[in-house]
Amino acid sequence: MMLMATLSIFSCKDDDISESANRDKLFRPAFRTDNNTGKGSTDPYNCAITDLNTAHLYWYTVDDAVAYEIKWAIQNYVANGEQAWIDTEAGVDGKELAGHVVVTDPKQFDLVIKNLSYQTDYRFAIRALHSYDANNDSWKTDPKNSDWYGYGHGTEWADYFGMQTGVRYDVPFVIQTLNITKTSMVVRLDRNISKYSDDEKKTFRDHFNFVDADQNVLKIDYLTFTASKSTPNATTNPTYLHFDIPESAWVNDVAEFTIDGLSENSVYNIDAWDSSIEAKVDACYNSVMKSTKGTPGAPILIKHVPTAKDTIGTGDNMNIYDISSYNSMKLDDIISNYNSDVTVAENQVFYLEGGKTYHFTDNPNLYKGLTLRTNPEDVAQGKRAKVYLSGMTKTGANVNTCNFMLGRQPNAGENSTITLDIDSIRFMDLDFDVPMATNYGHAQEGTGKAVGNYFMNMYSNGMGINVTLLEMNNCTFQGLIRGFFRIQGSNDFYIHNLKMIDCSHYNSGFYDNNGGGYNYIHADHNGKPKSNILENVEISGNVFYDSPKGSLITDSNRNLQWDASVRWNLNIHHNTFVNFMTRSTKSAWMNTRYIPGGSHANIHDNIWINTKDADDVNRAMNALGWDARNIQGGDGSGKVVFNIYNNWTTNDPYLKGGQPFNNNAFNATSNSPGKWQKTWKNELDTYYPAGLDELKVHCDTELKATDLMVSPNPQHFVGAKPSHLDHHTDKGIDGLYYQQTEKVLNSAIYKSGAGAPRLRNGKK
User: Fold this and answer.
1) CA-CA distance, 564 to 738, in Å (whole number)?
2) Which residues, in sequence order, are bridge partners of residue 424?
3) 12: nearest Cα among 24, 28, 25
4) Distance of CA 35 to CAs 68, 161, 220, 559, 707, Å?
5) How far apart are CA 461 and CA 446, in angstroms?
């Protein structure tokens, strides 16, 4: 490690380095950042990441200090504050510090830390030492040592410091896996780069070594095959923990190894290395994580055992709450243990008891396929399980909430670019809620702030994901304020099948005055033209009732030249949208401005209704259709099939040209699916197979919303100022079922078969 002391020493005011005037111990130092210098990012003495993965730390020195102790760890280990740092240093739950050093020159005020893991969030901590002796540890408990700077958590931004390293340069994909069984797999290595583009070859030649004069054959001299930290008890084949590859193993620059003796249902890390490259983070090629097979057992019934008390936070920030009134059972440990349990195969089905309440307290990570559902025997009797995503307690004035996290953050020493293979994640026959959730209206009333929760989110510094199926089926959702499903992160993500079937959304959204947030499906593929979560999407049979939080699907306006492998296949049909996004003049029902060529959109048999009571005069009734502007990349054709037909609306006062959209109607000739009707005039049957007339949403002129349904209008009137009740219904969506009158049953909209099937036959 390289220590540097080349700049002048900074003097420090007391309030720069200590939170108290306690002279019985040294003042606390602090890293120099924009937050405490006020000099902006151009300050040459600000802490910074250089050369992608080198941290250059600067700190304020402290009078009478004899040394400085500095340590660092990956963010997700220590982000919860002091106790998390203590636990990580002690190795609790397999955690560990990423590094630790004592700077023994009291005049030194900077430190260079090289070869950190790429694309990883780190936190750093520092304290001033009153004494130091390398030969014993007594200095560690010297009462005059300063307090630690860097132990802050959450909103204590002034008391912690973190930086993210840069994305690694492009790396050749030399590892493949084949023939994965319960106890074995084949690892194939390909060291020849001839198949890559000239630009890719140049990058590889700048960073890697070769064994041939033409620099086409990479130097790969050993293989490691180890159990992942997600399944630390998995058995491994000792031969391949570190296997030196003999030259004789290469045939036409390809080597294959059958690795057996593995555990079922277990995850393994596979890496290929060049031993002549000193830094481990640069010596490995693409890292692969693969799971062995397993046979899922019979469904596991989670018998309801109420949790009387719940714990949130750690150390000094720990709070214990009495939640006995909810009669709810905590599920956190069950799902966490399942993730690492090698005795339970992926895709295990968990049953919850119908008529009972369960909950999660902290964000549960989902990186092993599972099904969570109400016991079908209970569903047959009309009983469903409730699942609270926290929302039962407050810390101060803030409601504690959580959401599912798709994937996970990397463990210490784990390559953050590894893609997690996840089979099927399914939620069925469940009622999700966040009982105390507060929205923008609460904030305006001074009774809370809009909570930033979702049903499912991802870590911004998480690993890549490759998901076979993500499905929500016959579920209800309430209390989800900021969004529903948010994709984010710097690694690639793939969801091959995304389904939302027969679900209901209500009493959600309203994160800000415009009703915005992170949308229902926030498909932000920022900077990742190969990523794709919209490969096959089915949204069918759902009810969306007055829960404003942006678009049904958005690409977040990312101008990407989509990779040739990317297509979208959107199937959105038999849904009912009531007052979908009436607060905003900007958020469209669909917002996909950059669509990959060769995609298909099947939008049919849906109903849009915009309705309110005549006396609800302050309620905005905005509605935008589909904002579609560009077709680029994908198959390179510049064309998309828009198969749109048999969509309907009722004859209410808020139509524009007979359409339920103020702007971006499907048949509009700009910024909508109809934009290309003139450009493709000779191929209309191919790209508008249902015909141009079907781009229009049909209006049943004989029925208003209140004729079709029992009580579709918002229950609470909007006042002069926002209220938390603006989009709330006390009775759920029981009033949305169709009236069983002769007029309705003989109406065009009813006979069309459009809309959510559950609403057609009256209240059940």
Assistant:
1) 45
2) 469
3) 28
4) 21, 10, 45, 33, 59
5) 34
How many other C-beta atoms can be found within 10 angstroms of the C-beta atom of residue 49? Answer: 16
* CA angle 93–95–99, rounded 5-degree value: 160
Run of H or E residues at 206: helix 198-207
Res 42: pLDDT: 81
Chain centroid offset of residue 326 CA: 28
| Nearest in space to 333 (alpha carbons), one of 356, 302, 357, 355 | 302
DSSP E strands: which ranges in 2-115?
2-4, 48-50, 54-58, 67-74, 99-103, 110-113
What's the token pair of residue 267? 């995850």
Whose CA is closest to 468, among 224, 651, 710, 291?
291
Interval 646-673 mean pLDDT? 97
Tokens 């002048």, residue located: 8
| Tens-digit pLDDT profile for residues 53-85 | 999 999 999 999 999 999 999 998 998 889 999
Find out whether 620 and 513 touch, Cβ atoms under 8 Å.
no
Residue with tokens 């209240």: 763
Neighbours of 501 (CB within 10 A): 16
Tokens 């005049």 correspond to 107
What is the mean predicted confidence (pLDDT) over 240-266?
97
Residue 317 pLDDT level (bands cut at 50, 70, 90)? confident
Strand partners, 699: 649
**pTM recorded for the entire structure:** 0.88
Task: Give the DSSP per-residue string, 317-383.
Answer: G-EEEE-GGG-EEE-HHHHHHHHH-TTS-TTEEEEE-TT-EEEESS--EE-S-EEEEE-HHHHTTT-
With contact defined as beta carbons under 8 Å apart, do 688 and 720 qualify?
Answer: no
CB atoms within 10 A of CB 682: 7
Local confidence band at 761 (pLDDT 50, 70, 90 cut-offs): confident
pLDDT of residue 1: 31
Highest-scoring range by mean pLDDT, 12-26, 405-419, 513-527, 626-640: 626-640
Q: What residues have CB less than 8 Å from 703, skipping those under 6 apart?
A: 650, 651, 743, 744, 747, 749
- For the record, the structure tokens of 551 come out as 């678009």
* pLDDT for the residue 229: 86
